[in-house]
Amino acid sequence: MVLEQASLPEWISAISQLLLVLIFIALFTGANQRIQVYLWSRDIRSKLVILESFANDARRRAVEYMVSKGAKDAESLVSRLADFFVISPVDIEPVDIIRRLEHLVNLRSRRFKEEVARHMPEADEVSRSKAEVALEIASALSFIHKYVRHILLTGEKTRNWILIMQLQLIMPMILKIADTYRRALNDFLKGVPIGDSAGPMVALRLAGRGARWERIEEETVYTVADVEGRRVYIVKAEGPGSSVGRPGSATERLIEKLVAQGRKPRLLVTVDAALKLEGEETGSVADGVGAAIGDIGPEKIRFERIAVKYGIALRAVAIKMGLEEAILGMTEKIVKGVEKAVERVKDIIRGESKPGDIVVVVGVGNTVGVGQ
Prior knowledge:
The protein is α/β, with parallel strands linked by helices.
């Protein structure tokens, strides 16, 4: 007996039923999920290779820069400081936590400076500050690479597909941040002003040409200017090296000195770069109350405490920009924002003080490329 050949519709029906059975088996056994996790893991690993190349490139360039400035055993220094860490102080006992945190932050900063100075004895201060930034960027990129790898391996080890899925979803954002740090290294080593230099640049413009600056705190300077009859004390980090100084400590010391002389300031204005929301224009300027400073606590609280102690109005001016714009070379829009901020500060001084009053203005931010 000869079997008749099956028709095309019958073959399609049979294949469809087979596929449905396979899909059911895959859903029942979780095979589809394992395939998806495999694809996510492969995508993460491909991006992890890029992160590793960013970290290695930053370390290599840091070593090359230090060697070009006569550093001794730069490779060893970069390898050691790339993994340098700070353990946060105990926070379940809040008493004196700011002072403890400030001590640890300052100790870390001092340790970096001492190590760089020891390995680069013949380099000038500006070159050393650039080397410190190169080390910071290399350390940041190294941490990003290690942390992403840790999350991936933990997810695979525990078969936590939700953890892997979340990591895969945010990988484009992580890559963008890492790439921004990598590109920022060029601008820091060249010594050009970055977006975060907007605050110090406002201070420099407000002081005017020929101002005489004096050091008042570590890597922090001040000068005195006349703004429409007001005696304005202007504070900024010391440039043109890469430093944020200690604006809070410097301002506190300056105000205590002025009060002791019977010249209590009427107004304290802080100016800093601020992250804009998506849709906001780069270089736009806003003002408010409080201390405009992106500090984890020790410097910021000094502004607040000194203002409360003597009843000084604490005002803030912010120049808006994105994270990428903040750490890359200053753009034309931010330069225009600096000019707007200078005028906004003057408006605040006019409106909230009288001729003869004492005013303190602080330009907060990294002063790379912005001298005195």
